[in-house]
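lol ok so funny story. i was supposed to be doing the assay writeup but got distracted and ended up predicting the structure for this chain instead. priorities right. anyway since i did it might as well share w the group, maybe its usefull for someone
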Amino acid sequence: MTVKDILVAYDGSDAADHMLRHVLTLAEREDAHVTGALVHGLSAIMAQLGPYASPQVEEVLYAQDAEDRARIRARFRETVGKAMTEANKAHFIDRQGPPDESLATMARLYDFVAMPVAGKGKAHFVSHPDVVVDRSGRPLLLVPEAEGASPVPKKVVIAWDGKRAASRAMTGAMPMLGAVEKLHVVEVGKPHSDFDPSVDEVVRYLGRHRLPAEAVRLQPTREGVAATILGHAHDMGADLLVMGAYEHSKIAEDLFGGVTNHVLHNANLPVLMAH
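and the output, tada:
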């Protein structure tokens, strides 16, 4: 299986442009389609005014919104380039609805959805990676604005805890690993269960796919499991981190913190997650 259809959450921000350029390099290598998605709800002003907005005010606000959306569409097309558009390899969807839920639903028919770490466009144009990965059922590629990571990954870290989400993330990442030269399967601390597949078993599985995997066992630092994983990825010079998301409930992580939330807020390299 290869990457052939990529959904990109695009709000016209600089962070979204950086993410899009990253994805376009991968898409060119894989001869894949790229679909930009701008999913938008009501602007903050419209939401506050509600039924109290006069028709004249509504007309002005909707016109401004339409201008903003047209500008974002034009910026997407400019970044993608004329050749890809004319080859029918790039498309743009402008859809009204709850941004997070709508994007998560759309993502179910794509190989993966790509998002910037933090959208910086207007609030009603921005989707949130934590919600999308939790609800979409598809892998999510999170791309920070940090420079240096190759869009076609050569050095990869797979964070492994033996759980379902880690397995789904690894499987989702397989089409992206064709050019990998160094692949670490990282386990932090002791396995949670004797019945969970070990890092050695993962290495054997990846080896049968002719991937150069190595097992790495680490002890967590004082900063915790997530910081240990990110630190190893940094030391290795990794282009991609692959990990499960929200193996514990998202609500629990939102309240008490956890590996997924830490990575979402602190990653300085692309991260492919799955729930």
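The first strand starts at residue 5 and ends at 9. Residues 55-80 form the longest helix (26 residues).
back to the writeup now i swear
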